[in-house]
Amino acid sequence: MKILSLGDVPELKNLAKENGFTLHVRDACGGQAFSISKNSNADNAFYQKLEDFFSKLNMEIVFHDKDKLNFTIK
What we know:
The chain has 74 residues and is α+β, with helices and mostly antiparallel strands. It has one domain. Helices cover 27% and strands 31% of the residues. It has helices at 9-18, 46-55, and strands at residues 21-28, 31-38, 61-63, 70-73. Strands 1-2-4-3 form a 4-stranded antiparallel β-sheet, with helices on one face. The protein is globular and about 35 Å long.
């Protein structure tokens, strides 16, 4: 499992906010887990921007639910 640097977290949270989502990061000994919640102005184009963000860091998103609200990275 890959780890997102703490320096990249504010940029990711800002990306989510700009697209109508709130990002939550859980950082624990074994790795990180992320969850997102949709706000009233959520833009579903965010999911592609999210993929692009992690792709430029050579990481891949693994969603853990059909609604794409919980994920880890590899």
